[in-house]
Amino acid sequence: MKNKEEIKNILDWILCVLIAIVIAISVKYYIGTLTIVKQPSMYPTLIENQRLWLNRWGRTTKKLPKRGDIITFEAPSKTLLSKEEKEENVIARYDNESNTFWKKFTHNVLELGKVSYIKRVIGLPGDHVVIEDGKVFINDVEFKEPYLQPGVVTDNGKGYVTGLVVPQNSVFAMGDNRAQSTDCRCFGCIPLEKIESTVAIRIWPLNLFGKV
After folding, report:
1. Which residue ranges of the chain lie beneath pLDDT 50?
2. Would residue 153 count as lying in a domain?
């Protein structure tokens, strides 16, 4: 009897641990998670090693972010498209899609080996985005960007974007640190299904705690 009771207790503990793991994974994937800024592309808005809380509810509800939102998304498989490739299709390429359930689970849910970028949404579906004379124009109107450092010039970077119309269910995003950002100027617009989250709150350092 004692052995059976011990086995039952062990199984109960195992079940509790499994339930806790499932809940933790579900919260991270569907609701939100923590992250650390690892790149300088959003300077000065975000600085390396700052801690952020990411809201993933938009991905769960398949809702596009708003203009000006800072988002995270899966890095494209090709980060620099040729002029010909851009003219053919302005959507970022994702050519390394997993084809088995386990690979999809570990990549998309557990995020093992997954690389993500963090950028600001500039263009929404249907917007005509033009980069000209160091500025951004949306539908022929100069887009004001008060979050940029004084004197920042927006050029085509390593890309070939002089003007594009953002396709449906996708966004055009750039880093605030334009000179050190590999973004949609280089690899094209981000499809909705590859957008992972929006930045909700900066939680560290404490003196900058709050909405970003």
Report:
1. none
2. yes
